[in-house]
Fold these 2 entries.
Entry 1:
Amino acid sequence: MVSFGAAPSAPLGTWPIRRRKERAARRLRLLQRVVREPQAHLELWYADSTRFELLPVASSMWRRRGARQWVKTPGQNVRVAVCGAIRFPSRQFLFTHQPKTATTALFLPLLAQLEQRARRTGRPIVLVLDNGVPFNSRLSQAALEAASPHVRPFRLPKYNSETLNWIEGFWGHLKQTYFSRMLADEREAFYPDALRILQRLRHPERIKSLALRSP
């Protein structure tokens, strides 16, 4: 029997996913309160990988009705793959890079930087990660086990990275602010120009100037 006008039932699997997201969100809020304390005994970092491209994705532009809009480009696309981590709430930023695609080879040196920092400060790091390939490969899992107890992974539930991973907003702001237009007139200049922007953002005061929303 079909009841017309009744509230639709949730798709199968929706409620378990929602409960996992709510549990993860509660735990993250607790960790955020802990690390805000001046004498916090640990640090909270959010990590993720992304890719910046020479040819921007045009989300909107003005053109005369019926006319085709041409965008001048410097040639074949160039991609810069980046694996980064940002500290909550101070916004310190670390990153590694390579051409084309983010892989485990990008995450391992970033993890080494975080482990070195934890050893130097004496404060263990809770590292928020999604289930992407760079963070979930066998090599990455073995490296995370070897980095314990200095670096402890906090795995986000599937399909919730965009809402729970603070660094996602950082990537989005960078792409809208710096990479939504043609960054370089020459193809060969894009990679070093992109790195120059990221290196400037390694200073927390530079990131504070961005309208980065707190989680």
Entry 2:
Amino acid sequence: MGILSFLFSTDPKKEIEACKKRIENFEYIKKTVRANVKNKKEQHYHEHARGRIKTLNYQIQKEKEQIQAYRKKLKK
């Protein structure tokens, strides 16, 4: 869906703001996952949390790449 919104978007500034909001949400989820895993002693909780944080970091990286693409589009 990100590619389609990039191709058909009308306002890159709005898209940049939307990406920033999604990044904030991902950061909040990471913080919550870390807080929840502190209370758990079982190893599988820790392994699941590591996987979830990796996924969130990947999503944040992709959002940052989209922001860079939108900024390039703005400069044109």
